[in-house]
Amino acid sequence: MDEPTIALTINIVSVLLALAGIFFYIAGTVGILRLPDIFTRLHALTKADNLGLGLILLALLPHAPDAFYAVKLFLLWVLVLIGGATGAHLIAKRALRGDGEDIH
Amino acid sequence: MIARPPIRNEQGARKGANSPALSARLLRFLPRLILFTALWLVIAGSDPSSWIIGLPTVLFATLSSLRLASAQPTQSALRLGGLLRFLPFFVVESIRGGIDVASRVLRPRVRINPGFQSYRPRLDHPGARVLFLDSISLLPGTLSADMRDGVIEVHALDIGSDLVPELQRLERLVGRVFGQTLEEDGA
Amino acid sequence: MTMVAFFLALALVLLITMAVGLVRIVIGPTPADRMMAAQLLGTSGIGVLMLLSTALGIPALIDVGLIFALLAAVSVAAFTRRRVGQDQA
């Protein structure tokens, strides 16, 4: 393959990944709004959102200016994954035990 | 959050008896130091002047992580083979999980049948338990809601199907990352 | 359409999604629901920042994204440690 073809292929893959990412973001937001209780909403938040961010970062990866930036993108995703999953667990635990200030 | 393993006095006593205490401490210190140095390099870039802040930060991070981890068993090295098996599984299941949630919420009537199920994990290593809890939340249809007295409350979007086989599969893979082998049929 | 324009358009779509997600913060009903929606805002915000970072050629925006991620984790942990009547004490 010559160079323009490779560039075009990368751009097409990038576009598809980014669109998929946006789709999961929208699904996450719809889930947060439509699902009936706090636990099911947490499902939408953890899964759809983290996948959305992961796909968008993957789409941006070929456009990274240098290798440091690419590693940082990956680091950012791992950080959000850990933070999101742990945060969801903490919120669910708090709701389940009923020891928060919102339950009277 | 994590149940601490029983105090490992006999282990520490054994180490103090002969003199590899220093090398053992170095063995705990060095991997963390290298990890945090690499992390700083990624965050701050290659500019040498960034080390004015970077060096104290890296040292402080290493010391505080050692302090926080002191209750853990020392043989906590990650197994590369286990990690290489876990990562593709994790990626595939994350994608399945996202598609699962999306397909449930994007139809005219939300299709869910939520409920709780208890699961008792057999993982010993505290790090393995954290990885297990976080992975449950990213897998299709499951969310780790609570952990108390060694029992995990798993919330499922669809309680109709049995969660145990899936959880056991995940647990085996997580166990292998931390060098713990779990037999096929437990529970 | 160039990639820059495409990424900018996606950032705009994501911003609109964020704005729709704000509805959950308004209607609640519990503080935990609002916290969750704020977390969603953080994740979407990181997505917008990263798209803008590439589209506008500002690599430093990724540091802002990293700070967002750290603050989101800390704020959720702090939120779940709150107890009844703690604010009045």
TrEMBL record, chain B:
One of its GO terms (molecular function) is monoatomic cation transmembrane transporter activity. It is found in: Cell membrane. Its main location: membrane. InterPro entries: Cation_antiport_E (IPR002758). Keywords: Cell membrane, Membrane, Transmembrane, Transmembrane helix. It is a multi-pass membrane protein. One of its GO terms (cellular component) is plasma membrane. It holds the Pfam family MNHE. Belongs to the CPA3 antiporters (TC 2.A.63) subunit E family. This is Cation transporter. It comes from Lamprobacter modestohalophilus.
